[in-house]
Amino acid sequence: MTRQLDEQIVGRFPVGQRLRVLDVGMGQGTQALRLARAGHQVTGLEQDPKMIAAARESLAGEPEGIRERMRIIEGDGRDTGVHFLPGSFDVVLCHGVLMYVEEPDPLLAGLARMLAPGGLLSLLVRNGDALAIRPGLSGDWSGALAAFDTTAYRNRLGLDVRADRLKDLTSTLAGIGAPLHAWYGVRVFTDTAADGAEVPADVETLLAVEEKAGRTDPYRGVAALLHLCGVRG
């Protein structure tokens, strides 16, 4: 997904431009910190105190210049309008968040308002069109059968969450003024890997395969996750 995001940024903005980035639901700050290291001005918005503590700890170990380029705000992603003015950012990330939001449309509309004209909205969501893949490949036939007609699922943390369908999000993005520009699959072949599995020695080949599959039909359509990139009109 990092490679996909960089591809979109490079293709949309002049080389060397210092972008204003908002990472909504930044978690432990992996993407936010990476983009700050790349020279961008990054704001991370997160409501989980444990994640904020982890992000602050990682940031504290960075050189002063990087620390100055990144700020962390405690808050809910649905309240972006409370913290920021419309059009304040060139890039807005919302990765791994929508599955925890029962009604995502207001959140998405708020994210689109944060974008300057031509700005990039990057979403990472659970693929609602491929929920039967994981239980099917694991031999859970009853679970696979039930997954065909729902967007609800139980994640690896044991939480009951929801997925999004590409068709529905395409319509939503068009309706909020940030129509879909590109989309990718994420975790096409590796979704069934056990948590904590050892990284294979040929990880670069693995990443090359996943990257190729993530942009190639029909493989990307059955990926566990979808990476959608909308552009503010």
UniProtKB/TrEMBL annotation:
Which processes are annotated in GO (biological process)? Answer: methylation
- Which parts of the sequence belong to the Methyltransferase type domain? 22-122
Sorted alphabetically, which InterPro entries does this protein's record hold? Methyltransf_11, SAM-dependent_MTases_sf
Keywords tagged on the record? Methyltransferase, S-adenosyl-L-methionine, Transferase
- Gene3D superfamilies annotated for this entry? Vaccinia Virus protein VP39
Database matches in Pfam families: Methyltransf_11
Supply the name of the protein. Methyltransferase
**Species:** Streptomyces lomondensis
Query: Does Cytoplasm show up as a keyword for this record?
Result: no
- Organismal lineage: Bacteria, Bacillati, Actinomycetota, Actinomycetes, Kitasatosporales
Gene Ontology molecular function: any one: methyltransferase activity
Q: Which domain of life is it from?
A: Bacteria
